[in-house]
Every structure is written in structure tokens, then in C-alpha cells.
Amino acid sequence: MSVNWTAVRPRPVTATARANAPAQAPAAKPSAAKLPEAPIAHLWRPLRGALLFARGLVGKVTALFRPGFKPQDAASPDGRARETWAALQAKMGLAPGAGVYAEHAGGSITATVWPYGQALAAALDLAKLDGNYDQVKALAKGLSNFKKDGAYAPGPWGGKRLWDDNAWVGLDLIQAYGQTKDPAYLDQAEALFPFFLAGLAKQGGVYWEENNPRMSLNACANGPAAEYALRLYMITKKPQYLAYAKNLDGALNGPLRSPEGMYYDNVGDDGTVGKEFYSYNQGAALGADVLWYKVTRDKKYLDRAQQTAKAALKHFGKGDRLWKQAPSFNAIFFRNLLTLDAVAPDPAYRKALDAYLDRAWKEGRDPKTGLFTQGGMGSYTAGKADMLDQAGLTQLFALAAWPKDKLADVS
Known about the structure:
The protein is mainly α. The chain has one domain: Glycosyltransferase (Alpha/alpha barrel). The chain contains 16 helices and 7 strands. The chain has helices at residues 15-19, 39-63, 77-92, 113-130, 134-142, 163-180, 183-191, 193-198, 219-236, 239-252, 279-296, 299-316, 321-324, 327-343, 347-364, 387-400, and strands at residues 93-95, 100-101, 147-148, 151-152, 216-218, 266-268, 273-274. The strands form 3 sheets. It has a 3-stranded antiparallel β-sheet. The longest helix is centred in the N-terminal third of the chain and has 25 residues, at 39-63. Mean pLDDT is 87; it is low at 1-40.
């Protein structure tokens, strides 16, 4: 079996950007020097990837002898969250107790860090409901498989690191610290900060992927990275985190903000703007504004968050736009919308979430597998049941069952 170990997940958010990419390397580069990597790491990383792949194959075979997934058609959000998570474990868990998962249902390729981090977020949201942190611990331990030069690479085989991947993981670690008070999680989150500093662009903002032929500022990196820095500041009161978030705010609310009050996908060093609208970009950006409001008590941030929420609900409320977005994107959108609702309640927010989840359960879910692959529902990878999307829906069902006064704690 031939495996392309250098493959990095497809990125719909940069399709337009790639079409307009310049042939030459850009003048602006991340400002911090890259730390030299120990020679042994170059030998260990491919071996580690191969070992995890082999473990995945073993897991796929042993899964044939495990009890099959038995859908229950749960009625409550809590029950639906657990059933959605159980389907993820049954269909994508290769060695779930050790934190090894498949990228897609029925596959044997080890999941990349982007869906893996979203599964960790789902495990945290579920643990808040019952206090069982076994899955959180296993997934957090499995993050070590992705470590590269003080940050997280796309896969255990390595690859070019992405600032948005690391922002999502950083937010997971911060949420884990908030729920468990285990200082090790906070230490891990803070340890990522040098990588974020290395990604700062000369014009402000943080880049998306290191050493990309077209260096770009993407909303999917600047939004969650700002949230990451602001949440660290709220915990530690260290001024460097606040200064970092302020830098990113200039990029987010400069070239990346549209006249409608939403956020474009990306802007390149060449000035080309990718004007696509994705639901997760709106969520992370408005979530950052909610945190800015908490930090400063300046109402302009709350006003901006509400403006973004209103514009996004209007835009994605037309036709099937929201339905066609990947569930993983919608998970990030709605979980940030819920944090806004916790600060400035608006019944429109919860109404939109409840309608989406009700339709997902009735039309998008395959009752035989518990996977969300039907009804023309959007997906991150067309034609496949993604770990990423299944994790996103687990998050949303779980958060729908959280007490409202706790939703401000969701990272």
C-alpha cells in the first residue's frame, strides 16, 4: 500500500488564493528565526508516522471484532452528543484509548492535527457534562505525536506547520486548563507562543502556513490566534499576550473585514484578497471581540461582535448556505455565537443553532451509522464522513446541553 506521508489536508479557504499565487517567493517572511531541529528528529518523525500508520491498520482489523455501533435515536442534546461521539469512536477510532484516529470513516490514514484538535474540543465539551476526563487525557497525550520544533505539525510525519492549527490546539489546551485546573495544560498552551511570534507579518497579523509560496493573512488563523492570546492574557495578565492580540486585531479589522461587517477568507502579501465567506471565520472573529469586551469593557467591541453575528446570520440564512457549510466550520461559528449570547443575549442565536441541529439530526444523519452524510449536508471533504465534521457536531450537541452561564468558558 502506497501512502503519501507529505499530504496536507485540503484547504477550501485558500482555493482562490492558490489560483492567484505569484510565482516568486514574497518579500515578507516570518520575523523570528527558525530554531534548528535536532538531527535525530529527522529520523524519528517518519518512523513515528509509519508506526502510527501500522497501529492504525491493526486498529482497523481489530475493529471488525468489536461490538458494532448501535444508534439509539436520542431525543435530548446530551444524548445526541454522546451518540454522535460514539459513532466517531466506532467508525474512526483506530486506537482511541491511545489517541489514534482515522481521518475518515473506514480509513486507516492517521488523522491530521486539525481534526484531532477538534475531537479534543468535543471531548472537553462532553466532559463538562459528566465529569469524565478519560478521553480528554488520551487525546491530550496523543498531541505529542504531532510535536515539531515547539509547535504542532499537520501530521506525525511532519509537514509545514500552520498557525491556525496551533491556534485551535492552543484554545483546546486553555479550555482543558479552565475545566481541570491542571497547570500542565496552561504550560503547554503558553509554550506555543514563540511559534505565534515567529508568524507575525511586517504589516501586522499572523500568517497562515510557514514557508508557503504565497504568504497570506487568513481569517482562520488571525481570529483564533487572537482568541488564544486574549484568553492567555485573561488568565496570566502577561502584557505580551495583550499586545499580540492587538496586532492581530489590526489585520482582522483592516483588510480582512468586509463592508457588510463580515470577514473575508484571506489577503496575500501581493494584495490579492480571497473574498469567500466561511462560517468559522465569522465565529472566531466575533469570539475575539467578545473577549476584547471582557478585557476592556469597551462597548465598541461588543457592538462589532453583534454586527458580525447579525451580518453572518443574514448571509448564511439565505437558502441553504449554512447547511452547505462544513459542520466543522459551523461548530466554530456557533460555539462563538453562544459565547456572545452569554454576554449579550439574543434569541436569534439559539434559534439558529437549534434549527441547524434539529435538521442535522433528522436529515443529515445516517441512522445506520450515526454519521452525518445525508440530506445534501455540507462536509469538509466531499463524499466522505470526516472525523472533523463528526467532532464538530459532537461539540454542538454537547454545548446545546451546557448551562447557559457556563458557555462563556468555551474556547
